[in-house]
Structures are given as structure tokens and as C-alpha cells.
Amino acid sequence: MDYITMHQTATPNLQSVINQSLVFHYLKEHGSSYRAQISLDLNISLPAVGRALDELVEKKFVIPSEYKMNTQKRRVQFYESSLDDFILISIDAYNNLITADKSNSIIKFDMNADADIGESFTAIIDDFVINTLHKSTNMIKAICIAFPGIVNPDKGVVEKAIYHPQFENYPIVKVLEGKYSCTVFIDNVVKLAVLQNKAELGDKYSNIVAMDIGMEIGAGIMINGSVYRGENYIAGEIGFYADTSNGSKKLNGHSSTLRKLAYMLKEEENGNVDFNEFRCREKCIPVIDEAFRAAYNGNIKAAAVIDQFAEEISLLINKIDPLLNPAAIVISGEICTIPYSEELFLKKVVEKYHKLRFSNVSICFSPSGPIAGLLGGAKMAEDIFMKQQFPYVMIETDDK
Q: Residue 341 belongs to what H/E stretch?
């Protein structure tokens, strides 16, 4: 966020923007409050707080809530922040999901492979806003799209797509900003997931690694509270690490994804198996589900393969942790939805990793699992919108 600096000249217009920013952020953090309380806590005059509240109510960022007793036992008007008149969209182009900030609706959509990309996303967004939210598309103020692959958020393009080659270098940000007259932001799906993971951990940590284990594998990195993307936007792309082949040339170049786990399980069961059979979820997930259930019920062979997979993941984590020394590592993705995966997989990863190196880092599953990127995108959409509307915050200091 931007901060108020001493060399700025506080013109009446700038001072109004500053006061509105401070009052809105105060209400967002503290909840329903009254004028005198806000004035005292922010050290802003009561008339200035009153003007800021009136302007925020007119812009529909704040609503008068109710009259209640204040600390002086007087009935006064309380106010609270509200974003009910604004739609902040999040789209996961990997799992084909769409939602809106503060919405309980998560909708699965189908991408029209033959249609123009911009037209496809426009149809998806229009349908969600009009037919699911029952609102007008004029209310859309920010859109965040999570893509798999190498994403350049500064240029607003996917530089290297994984599943959808047509996404590469398509000016999706420019197209959607022209359509909806709002801010559009894109990023890698796992880099957005780390925002959701931070919230799931109670915002206690500012250095986090988010690891997504699904049909692909990647990591999102947060350093000092900010998402780290790297010089070429590939920071955390651990999928580029090749696994050891254990003498089988068929495994060369394949990283520790669920498709590899499905292959390993089937090879253990049937012998010679073609890796190319496990290119899609529909082939992989049933194999993995069945194996985890079997391992839970005592199948030694299935348990051994799962143990080997946990070993590979612990080694991948070991390539990240020594360099970043995060406070927490959060595993999300489809692995979180597999039956008994916390007991058979996560606990094994933690045990094996702590044997590799002395570390107190917390390793846990994300409660959001495969939708962490979607929910993180919703947080990014709100954050971008809020920074545009209310760029100033009160600087916290330890000085007395």
C-alpha cells in the first residue's frame, strides 16, 4: 500500500481522500463504530470524520447500521463498511471455477475451445453475474484470473500455458478491461493460493510456501507478506524439477504430480504400464482413491507406493525450505481431497521432512484444498480494488 509521506502537501482534496481511506480501513478492521470513537482512535477531528463518513455513505462503501449505546451511555449512530454494491470476480482457469468476493456461490464452467478467449470469458462472467448473483455487470469493479503456467501479471499475459496453448500471449487483461471498464489482474494459480493460505493461518505468518499437489505441481511463495514471483515469474515452479527414474526411463522428466502417483500405483499393481494413460483427472483420481482406501485397510503394496510418493514430496520441500526458511508450508490441491490422505500422506511427509533437516516449520493441509487459488484470487481482487479506492492507511509504530 501507499503511505502518507511528509513531503506531500495536504490539499483539501487530498486530505479528503486520506480521511476517507483511514475511516474506511478503520471500519473494515474494527467493525461497527460511531463517529466519536473513530475520531478518537484515528486522531482526526470529529467534523472531518463526519464529512468522511457522509462521503463514504454516498459512495456506498459505508452504511449506517443502527443506533446503539456508546461508552457514555448515549444512543448514537453506528456505521459499518460494506462492499455489497460492488462485485469482485475471481476465476480459476485451471479448475474452471468462478466466484465473487464475499459470495457463497462457486460455479463450474466449461470453456468453449473453439470460441475467442475474450468472448469465452465474457460469456462466463456475464452468466455468473446475471444468472447466479442476479446483479448487473455494471457492478463489476475488479476481476482476478488464476492461470496454470508462467504468468506475467505486469504485462497481463500468460507467457507459458500448460493445458491451453491458446492462452499464451493473449491480451486477456486488455480485452476484459475494455469490456467491463474495471481492473483486471492475472497471476499463477498457486501464487494466488498463498493469499488464501495466509488467511487460513490467521494472518499470523508473513513468510509462507504454498505447495499445490494435483495433476500439476507448483509452489507459491510469500516473503514479508508479499507474493514473490521472481525475475522471470517462475519462482516456486518446482514442477520443473525432474524426479529420479529409479532405473525406469519412462519416468524421466516427470515431477511428483498425482498423475505420476497414479502411474506408480498401477505399475506396482500390473507391471508394465504406459505413463501416457494418466494424462487426465478422470484416469488418475479413481486409481488414487482406490489405492488410498486399500492402504488404509492394510494393503502393504499400496501403502509402500504412497510412502515413496511422500518421500519425493519431502525432498521437494527440502529444495525450498533451506533457502526461504518459511514459517509455514501449506499443501493444497487435489491431494487434500483424497480419502485418508492426511493420515497416510501428510503425516508421512512431515515425519520424513523433519528427518531430513532440523526445522520447526509447520507443514499442514489447506482446508480449501483445490479451490485455494480461486479464493486467493478473490482476496487479490478485493485488495486491488481497495488500494485503488483507499490508498492510504495509518502507519503503525511502536513509538510511545
A: helix 341-341
First to last CA, the chain: 24
Q: Is the Cβ–Cβ distance between 340 and 306 less than 8 Å?
A: no
Q: Which residue has the cell 509452489?
A: 219
CB 365 within 8 A of CB 330: yes
Q: Which one-letter amino acid corresponds to residue 141? A: K
Per-residue pLDDT reduced to its tens digit, 60-99: 999 999 888 877 788 999 999 998 899 999 999 999 999 9
Nearest alpha-carbon partner for 241 in 259, 214, 219, 265: 219
Q: Outline where DSSP puts E strands in 16-56.
A: 33-34
- For residue 247, the tally of other CB atoms under 10 A from its CB is 6
Q: Please name the residues in contact with 142: beta carbons below 8 A apart, sequence gap of 6 or more.
A: 88, 89, 182, 183, 184, 185, 381, 382, 384, 385
Contacts of 143 (CB under 8 A, 6+ apart): 88, 89, 90, 91, 125, 176, 180, 182, 183, 184, 185, 381
Write the DSSP assignment of 143-188 as a string of letters: EEEEESSEEETTTTEEEE-SS-GGGBT--HHHHHHHHHSSEEEEEE
Cα–Cα distance measured from residue 189 to residue 92, given in angstroms and rounded to the nearest whole number: 7
Amino acid at the residue 19 = N
Q: Give the torsion sign (CA, 39, 44, 50, 53).
A: negative
Q: Are 287 and 268 in contact (CB under 8 A)?
A: no
Cell triple for 355: 528427518
**CA–CA separation, 224 vs 320, rounded Å?**
16
The vertex-253 CA angle with 247 and 257, nearest 5°, equals 100
**Stated pTM of the model:** 0.86
- The per-residue pLDDT for range 351-363, each reduced to its tens digit, is 999 888 777 788 9
What are the CA-CA distances from residue 313 to residues 194, 305, 324, 349 (Å)?
18, 13, 17, 7
